[in-house]
Structure formats: structure tokens, C-alpha cells
């Protein structure tokens, strides 16, 4: 089906008004609802308009002055945006999901203690003594711990405890008394079971709040989240609009997702969607998690060719807002100059999300401090290192700081991570975070008891620390640039919610849970129904949808895994055969 044959029922503006009218009607009748808004539909706009509708009729929806609308968000950025766009109105309680839930459950200390005592996870932490009488239950840094007079909760504990408490009619009644209406933003990313728990009593005992879910279950790309939520009390509302993308891209998304057809803005441009594939690559394709993919060297060469020689290179060179999206951190790491980091850690999250304390310290403190030193921004330098500005009593004090950072800068340019850390641990000018210092001590203690020639084999946190010390610090510097968003590269997971003028998506393998070629072949008319029931289908479909929907004007899809004939036929039908490009190769690395 070509673009010219695609018709749109409404303009994006008309579709948006229809969805808002349905939301207002649900609120007027006290009905729970779920607004399903595809990528670029303007979900946040609808949420803000719904909040304003309530504020304009506050006497009806919030009859008491102490009652508020709760608006649960996925991030602090989203929370701050909602507060800004509603002028900080005190009738709106906007907070992160965890912030709101802790606000609700924290007063019920005895109930929390009882639930923790029954938890298998906490029984192990409490060393077989589940009695928490006299202990305060606290939630601060999100780290589980048992202290002298209190226990501290992990982030995962908060929704789990809230689900249990929402099962209590009295708790639901007290919550509803304070918050008669609750909006949940990005509902697909809420922990599984939480949404159902919040509305559990809405039909039976009417003591649950009116709940509005705003989101898109096709943009569920994180594990342990609910995805689609279904409940007989929910009024489904579709928002069939796309205010982001040009017509070619909207058409492509509608082919991918015909059950939620979107209409572009009335003045949207045509845009482009181009498919590049590597089916005729002459080399031996990779195996295991990379099964069917061309080599890493060939992948990088194809990306270079796409940006410099292909037909798409024209808009790539002219673009001022351009992003390359990749599936795996290993691919992006090779491109950006930190190829060893993915091999250090068992889980990519350890370094990309800075869950490893050493990586977090180097990326968030040391590297920015070195930048501040080079730029002579000494106020920023001292602020980054923590605490108050040091007292510089004379030239000698200034000399100590200058000599140390000159040495650290030289070492960081050519040395290993371990050499940089050794310098940091040897100085007395500023303190090192406790978690980093403790890891260093544990590492030294573990090495001290090894027999001569014996290798350190466990625990994993120490073997990973040892491997981290042995890579070039330049890789930390490259990781900092990537995380600081100062490159054109991102993983597909990290750009959810973002938009760019022009996008290249590199679609390949790397994780066994994703197989884009297999997912797309399931759209072929003759395909087996079992393909859409495969474990990899929904994760692949959702991540592909999120990636393809970031572009406003131009979208190029570079497939570095082999595509089945069915897959090519599906893509050809969606974008037209003239927009399918087979990359030819001179050898196993070089595209023509």
C-alpha cells in the first residue's frame, strides 16, 4: 500500500478534540478511563487539559478544600512539567509514582512492619527474626537495610507494599477521601498489578478514586511493568492523532499498528521512510545472541556509508537535529570509544544506568571535575567534589590542588581506570564516597589473602571492579560524552518520549528477547499465527515502534540482520519497493 492510497479519517486536531471530549465525559460521569495515545499523539496535552477541566469545576470534582487531584508520573521531569503547566495549583498533587505511594503508605507503620515480616525477601534480610516492633519503616535512598532503630526500603518495595494496602477497604476509603481523582501518567510503565489494585473497589464498594490512565501499552519496553491494563470499570478512549511526524512516517506507523490509526497535522509535510538491508553481505554472519547479524566492523562500515554515501546522506548532512538509535550498548560502545566496558559487567545497566558506584563516581564527579579544572571553573570543581569550598590559606594550598589535578588530568588522558583511582585514594584534599572507598578496601582485602598466582574469582562485584580498573580511562570519558547526550548516538531504550527531526535506526540482534526480522515477518498474510505468540514478538514490536516513531521528517531503517523474504515483502508493501535499498559490498567489510 503506497502513501498516496492512505487516507486519514480526521486531522490530528479533530482526533484530539474527540479524545478530550470522551475524557471529559468520563470525568463528568465518575467513570474510570484509559486514554490510549500513540507516539506523537500529545498525551501530556490531554492530561493537562483534563486537569484544567477539573480545576475549572473544582466545586463538583473536589467539594472539600483539602481534597486534591493526584497525578502520578514516571519521572521527576514529567512531574515538574505538570506543575509548571498548571501554575503549581495547590489542588493538584503531582509527584513521581514512588513519591505518591510513599505519601499514601508511610503513615501506616504497623501495617508496613507486618507486611515486611511476611515477605520472603525481608525474612532473609532480617536473618530469621521478623519482629520489627519499635523499628521505623523509612524510604530514602532506595537501599534495603536494617539499622539500629529503623529499616530502609528498596524502590521495588514501595509498589509491592502499596498493592497490599490497596487491598484493604479502609485504606482505599482514606485515600479516596484525600484524592477523589487519580491520574496515572505513562500507565504502561507502572509496576504490574498496581493499576488494578488502585481501582479494585471501584465497582464493588465505591470507595476507590476515579482513576484516569494516560499512556500507550505499545510503548512498554521495561520489564516488570504492566503494559496494557484491562478492567471492566475502564472506559477505553483512543487518541488517533500524531502531532509529531510527517505523513510518510505516520503512514508507516499505521501499517505497523492498524488498530490505532493516527492522523497527521493538517499542514504536515510528506517526509521519507527508507529501508536499507544487508542480505547480500558476503561474510560469515554472527551466532548466539547475534545470530544472523553481520560483523561489528561491517555494521560500523554500513553506518558510515549510510551517513556519507547513501541517498539518505543528503538529509543526514543537512540535519541539525539528528539521532542514530541502536539496540545494544555493545554496538554503540564500539562506535563511541568504550568497547571494553560492556565486557566488564554482567549487566549493561551496571554502567549505563550508573548502578555501579565506581562508574557513577567517575562519570558524575571526577570527569566533570576534570572538565571544570581545565576550564578554570574552580567553584564548580569544589562543588562537584562535595562539601564547602576548601580554605586556601596561601600559595602552598593552591599549589597542592593544582599539582594534584594536573597529575590526575595527565593520568586520565593516557592511563588506566585503576591508575586514576589509585591517585584519588592517595590524596587527602577531598573525601571519596563511602561505597567507592568500601569497594576498594574489600578488593584490597580479597587480593591480600590470595595465594601467589591465584586469580580473584568471586564475588562478582570485586571481579568486575578488578576488570574495570584494567581498562583505559578514556573509555570512561567516552561514556561520559554519551550519557551527557553530546553525541548523535543513543540506544532505543533511552530515547522513549524524545523526538528528533531525523532518525536512523540500526536494527539488529544482540539480545535474545529481540528479533525484528521475525517480528515483521509475522505481518505477512501467509504467516503462521504462532509468530505473534512468540516470546520475542511483543518486546520486538514495542521497541521497534518506539524507535521508528521518534522521527519528525526523515526515517532510515538500517537492518544489519538478515531479513526473510516475508519481511522484505511486508516492508516493501508499507513503504513502496522504491524505498527498499539493498546495500552492496566490495568485501566483507566495505559497502559500495
UniProtKB/TrEMBL annotation:
* Any Gene Ontology biological process: recombinational repair
Q: Name one Pfam family in it.
A: UvrD_C
Task: Keyword check for Nucleotide-binding, yes or no.
Answer: yes
- Annotated UvrD-like helicase C-terminal domain ranges read 450-560
A GO MF annotation of the entry reads: ATP binding
Sorted keywords for this record are: ATP-binding, Helicase, Hydrolase, Nucleotide-binding
Q: Which InterPro entries match?
A: DNA_helicase_UvrD-like_C, DNA_helicase_UvrD/REP, P-loop_NTPase
| Entry-linked PANTHER family | ATP-DEPENDENT DNA HELICASE SRS2, UVRD / RECB / PCRA DNA HELICASE FAMILY MEMBER
**Protein name (Swiss-Prot/TrEMBL):** UvrD-like helicase C-terminal domain-containing protein
The species is Brevibacterium aurantiacum
Amino acid at each position: 500500500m503506497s502513501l498516496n492510497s492512505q487516507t486519514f479519517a480526521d486531522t490530528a486536531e479533530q482526533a484530539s478534540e474527540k479524545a478530550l471530549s470522551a475524557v471529559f465525559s468520563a470525568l463528568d460521569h465518575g467513570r474510570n478511563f484509559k486514554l490510549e495515545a500513540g507516539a506523537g499523539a500529545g498525551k501530556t496535552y490531554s492530561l493537562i487539559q483534563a486537569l484544567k477541566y477539573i480545576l475549572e469545576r473544582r466545586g463538583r470534582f473536589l467539594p472539600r478544600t483539602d481534597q486534591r487531584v493526584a497525578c502520578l508520573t514516571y519521572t521527576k521531569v514529567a512531574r515538574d512539567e505538570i506543575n509548571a503547566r498548571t501554575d503549581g495549583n495547590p489542588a493538584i498533587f503531582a509527584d513521581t509514582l514512588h513519591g505518591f505511594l510513599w505519601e499514601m503508605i508511610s503513615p501506616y507503620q504497623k501495617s508496613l512492619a507486618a507486611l515486611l515480616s511476611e515477605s520472603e525477601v525481608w525474612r532473609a534480610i532480617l536473618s530469621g527474626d521478623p519482629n520489627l516492633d519499635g523499628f521505623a519503616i523509612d524510604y530514602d535512598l532506595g537501599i534495603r537495610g536494617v539499622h539500629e532503630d529503623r529499616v530502609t526500603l528498596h524502590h521495588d518495595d514501595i509498589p509491592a507494599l502499596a498493592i497490599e494496602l490497596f487491598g484493604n477497604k479502609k485504606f482505599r476509603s482514606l485515600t479516596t477521601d484525600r484524592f477523589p481523582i487519580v491520574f496515572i501518567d505513562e500507565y504502561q510503565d507502572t509496576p504490574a498489578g498496581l493499576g488494578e489494585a488502585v481501582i479494585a473497589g471501584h465497582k464493588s464498594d465505591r470507595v476507590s478514586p476515579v482513576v484516569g490512565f494516560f499512556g500507550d501499552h505499545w510503548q512498554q519496553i521495561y520489564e516488570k511493568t504492566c503494559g496494557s491494563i484491562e478492567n471492566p470499570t475502564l472506559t477505553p478512549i483512543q487518541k488517533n492523532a500524531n502531532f509529531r511526524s510527517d505523513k510518510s512516517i505516520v503512514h508507516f506507523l499505521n501499517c505497523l499498528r492498524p488498530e490505532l490509526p493516527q492522523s497527521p497535522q493538517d499542514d504536515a509535510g510528506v517526509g521519507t521512510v527508507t529501508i536499507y538491508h544487508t542480505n547480500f553481505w558476503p561474510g560469515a554472519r554472527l551466532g548466539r545472541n547475534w545470530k544472523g547479524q553481520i560483523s561489528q566492523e561491517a555494521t560500523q562500515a554500513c553506518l558510515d556509508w549510510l551517513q556519507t554515501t547513501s541517498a539518505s546522506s543528503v538529509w543526514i548532512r543537512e540535519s541539525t537535529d539528528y539521532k542514530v538509535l541502536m539496540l545494544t550498548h555493545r554496538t554503540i560502545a564500539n562506535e563511541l570509544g568504550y568497547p571494553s566496558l560492556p565486557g566488564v559487567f554482567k549487566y549493561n545497566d551496571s554502567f549505563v544506568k550508573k548502578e555501579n558506584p565506581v562508574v557513577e563516581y567517575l562519570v558524575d564527579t571526577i570527569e566533570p571535575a576534570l572538565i571544570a579544572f581545565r576550564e578554570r571553573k574552580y567553584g564548580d570543581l569544589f562543588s562537584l567534589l562535595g562539601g564547602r569550598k576548601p580554605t586556601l590559606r596561601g600559595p602552598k594550598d593552591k599549589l597542592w590542588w593544582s599539582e594534584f589535578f594536573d597529575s590526575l588530568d595527565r593520568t586520565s588522558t593516557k592511563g588506566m581506570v585503576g591508575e586514576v583511582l589509585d591517585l584519588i585514594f592517595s590524596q587527602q584534599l577531598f573525601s571519596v564516597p563511602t561505597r567507592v572507598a568500601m569497594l576498594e578496601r574489600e578488593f584490597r582485602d580479597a587480593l591480600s589473602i590470595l595465594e601467589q598466582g591465584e586469580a580473584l574469582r568471586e564475588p562478582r562485584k570485586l571481579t568486575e571492579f578488578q576488570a574495570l580498573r584494567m581498562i583505559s580511562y578514556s573509555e570512561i570519558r567516552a561514556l561520559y560524552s554519551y550519557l551527557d547526550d553530546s553525541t548523535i548516538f543513543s540506544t532505543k531504550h533511552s530515547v522513549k518520549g524524545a523526538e528528533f527531526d531525523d532518525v536512523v535506526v540500526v536494527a539488529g540482534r544482540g539480545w535474545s528477547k529481540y528479533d525484528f526480522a521475525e517480528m515483521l515477518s509475522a505481518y505477512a498474510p501467509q504467516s503462521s499465527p504462532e509468530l505473534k505468540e512468540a516470546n520475542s514478538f511483543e518486546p520486538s514490536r514495542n521497541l521497534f515502534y518506539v524507535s521508528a516513531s521518534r522521527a519528525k521528517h526523515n526515517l532510515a531503517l538500517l537492518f544489519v540482520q538478515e531479513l526473510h523474504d516475508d519481511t522484505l515483502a511486508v516492508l516493501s508493501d508499507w513503504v513502496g519497493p522504491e524505498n527498499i535499498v539493498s546495500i552492496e559490498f566490495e568485501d566483507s567489510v566495505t559497502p559500495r
